[in-house]
Amino acid sequence: MNVNTWLEPIVFFLFAGVVLFSAIGIVLTRNIVRAALFLLGTLGGVAGLYFLLMANLLAAIQLIVYAGGTLVLIVFGVMLTSKSPWVRFAPSRSEAAAATTIGLVLFAALAKIVTGIDWTVAAHPADQPATVRQVGNLLLQQYLVPFEVASVLLLVVMIGAAYLARPEN
Amino acid sequence: MLLAIANSFWMPDLDAVVAIGPLWGLAGTIVAIVLAALVLGRSAAVSSVITIIGATLTAWICFTHAPRVAQSAWAGLAPAGGSPMLLVDNFAILFILLICLFLACVTGLWMIGASTNARESAAHLRNGPEFFVLLVGSAFGMALMVSTTNLLMIILAIEMASLPSYAIVGFQKRNRIAAEASLKYVLFGAVTSALMAYGISLLYGFYGTLDVNEIGRLVSTELAATDTPAAAKALISVALFGLMAGIGFKISAVPFHFWCPDVFEGASIEVTTWLSVASKAAGLGLLLRIIAAVLQPLAETFDNPLSTTVAMFAAVTCTVGNLAAFPQTSVKRLLAYSSIAHAGYMLMAGAIIWQAKPGSDVANPAFAALIVYIIVYLFMNLGAFGCTALVYWATGSEKIEAFRGLGRRSPLIAAAMTVCLFSLVGLPPFGGFIAKFYLLMALFKSNLVWLVAVALLNSIFSLYFYSRIAYAMYFADDGKPAFSVPAFGRALVIAAAIVILLTGIPIAGGLIGRANQFASHLYPIAARTTFAEPQAAAAKDPIPLAARSAP
Amino acid sequence: MTSIGLQHYLLLAAALFCLGILTMTLKRNAIGILIGVELILNAANLNLVAFTRYRTGAIDGQIVAVFIILLAAAEAAIAIAIFMNFYNSLATIDVDRADQLQG
A109 CA to chain B: closest CA distance, Å? Predict the structure, then answer.
């Protein structure tokens, strides 16, 4: 029909590949700085998938807040606590084997479940991205209460985090 | 254009704003503490007084609200047609009232600690405003937890309750033990909340709604239509496991309990007292709502293995708590394990609810028994932790040895502690007995005899380690000098002991009657959307438990 | 070329979830565990947004995803502050060294 029919799978597998590659990198790497960098790959790949899923604003939020804020916070955390030698950072062989087995079994089970269900899909999957106006309207109407609660949460968390991170004088 | 914009705005009506008064009270307290710190300077005394005033005011708002919601629950704060974001019913009001009263008590305990110049309260004193903002913030989150059935609000409320709790556990920054406790707490909390988010995403996808009541309704209509396929059952199980991870973490049910003893030992004693009661009460309140709305219809889909699952979880939680309490030498840690065990007893009520069938009144005594249990548990723990705090501030130790000869050194404290301990075991004539009695009666009536046996065996186990403290107080005098404790502290623990004695026999019947009323109010909301007509009729006319089996 | 549907996204999210669980079990560093948590939260968000597009029609799932991003940020802020606090008293954030409290 149009460009989307052949482009969409390519873009999906591209971003999915990025997400999976970096997530596997996080599991395998023994260096916490590298793990944080791989996380950037995962977050960016997921943001790309949001674009594909017609959630443009969410993709922007993912990039700005998650990749730009939370990830930077984590990187700062790594820098500020990285002076210690990483004792036993690498798991033992048996631990790794056990964890990999559990992970594979878990994935097999979840995959069987999500593919086993006959998801009655919406007749027409959204082909227009959700506009900022739609999201904003929902946030200030149906989701006004969570929105306000979130503001209280952020105030309290800010006070708590600032207190804990502040040097004692 | 301007008119179009104005039309797209939605304002909640005044009724809705008034209805959630108790939440305004707590949020206002947070703002007041911050503003007072900005205007009057950083004074711990001012913040603690504001906290007490705020908690009392909120409790008063709860009292004035109670008659208004007594007849029918109020649900709303969303535009017409949207799923309600907050609920105000007698059940929510009762829990918020308990949380506020307990908040005032914990603040009182904090003031006593500050007046005794204990070493650790120095940090609290210097940073009073931060401490109380975090404390009231977690109370606000707990109040939200018991007044919502929206999955998004549930996850927000649990985080609102948890995030400040992590910070107050590690509040003494120089203290290595506290730092370790908060590290474990935050890691455990982050993992369980992530599991919960994943579970909620699956529930949303499967049912296409975030409203727990709506999900409950869909479950029952689905039942009428066809058999649920195996994959769907598995998906719901995974989703529910995720959801229960988040709630199990709050009530420290096995296997989500590992944080509990470490956090309770590492945190300062006011914080331990706060978490041991408020966080568990809020978690159980939330659990009850979910049970009433969703899991009851689900139980029939699953031919009831869910009831057995919950019963097993409860039995294991209870047994693990009691067995691990055996070798403890620190009273704080012993009480932490005891609180795990009590979470297990309270979870047992969940097993009953899953077995309730339409038209049956069995669920009702379970809810009522649980409410009685939570109320009594609040005072038992307040008393036990209060006495431990007073001993700790006087002697500098919270080991069992510090309690030696307390019967001579400070007879009133020892007496109050004894009342609390034996009430925790569940011996008559204390409140703990009544609470356990009603719970076991409800279990017995729903044919969960093996669970009754587990509970009884556990109570007998627990008699041993609680008695060790009592033995130390009365029969192991090591001749240390007597000490005096602040009068206010003495009043607090004695008041708790008196309440336990009163709930033991004199007001037990009234308490059960009221609890039954409150429990029946859990139904209108659930019944309105969840159940078919006959059961809605049954819910309107609850058979009062007191009438059938009052002592 | 196969056309991309809901199940592709659900499978990807399931994989991300399992990798998150693996990260949490294999990393001894507190920040490593936090990164595992972020992976699971992303899996949840991917589920939500995919369901929003292909199944529910209404964009409620996107709103929930926005709130989960916010919660992840708040949680990371508190967690990193606590890690730094722990690091200041022990000079490590290896969770195996958090062994003062036992019994």
Answer: 9
